[in-house]
Amino acid sequence: MNAIFLLTPSKRPLDLVAHRLGEGGLSVEEVSSGRLRVGDGDDHVFVFLEQDAREVPEGFRNLLGTVASKAAVVIEYSSLPLLRRVLDDIADDAGLSVDNDHGTLLSGPLFLHRLGWH
Fold first, then answer.
1. What is residue 68's predicted lDDT score, i.e. its pLDDT?
2. pLDDT tens across 79-106, in order?
3. Which residue has the higher pLDDT, 37 or 68?
4. How buried is residue 24: exposed, middle or buried, by Cβ count under 10 Å (0-12/13-18/19+)?
5. Which of 11, 21, 80, 81 is the most buried (most CB within 10 A)?
6. Do 86 and 21 contact (CB within 8 A), yes or no?
7. Measured distance between the N- and C-terminal CA atoms of the chain, rounded to whole angstroms
8. If you compute the radius of gyration of the chain from its CA atoms, what whole number of angstroms results?
């Protein structure tokens, strides 16, 4: 699986993610404490909070350390079309940062724009 990282100012980011994705028509199920399975048919991604800063990309980790109230949300995916749908539903927020784990760290809207999705 691949991973993408979201830096969000939300105090309850998984609740917000679950709400937005559920409104977007995706199935959202808590499969373990703090781990969501988000699906559309046979495709799924996992969404969870990363508690260990050593598990996120270095640039993202540096940004995470600057603002204590922000949370690191990880999306593990193998389906790029489903990831696109998930990001379309949740990443169009200027207060959110996205790191693709390949050297790109941008605000949510800029990330979507850079990919040509918006």
1. 58
2. 999 999 999 999 988 888 898 888 888 9
3. 37
4. middle
5. 21
6. yes
7. 25
8. 13
Using CA atoms, how far residue 82 sits from 42, 70, 74, in Å, is: 10, 25, 15
DSSP letter assigned to residue 11: S
Q: Tell me yes or no: is domain 2-114 CATH 3.30.310.
A: yes
Sign of CA dihedral 48, 49, 54, 56: positive
- Reported pTM: 0.88
Dump pLDDT digits (tens) for 44-63.
999 998 877 777 777 776 66
Lookup result for tokens 């996120």: 56
Is residue 35 within 8 A of residue 47, CB to CB? The reply is yes
Q: Which residues contact 49 (CB under 8 A, 6 or more apart)?
A: 13, 14, 34, 71, 72, 73, 74
Query: Could you read off the pLDDT of 6-28 as tens digits, one per residue?
Result: 988 777 889 989 999 999 999 99
Cα 101–chain centre separation: 12
Among the residues of the chain, which ranges form H helices?
A: 13-23, 58-64, 80-90, 108-114
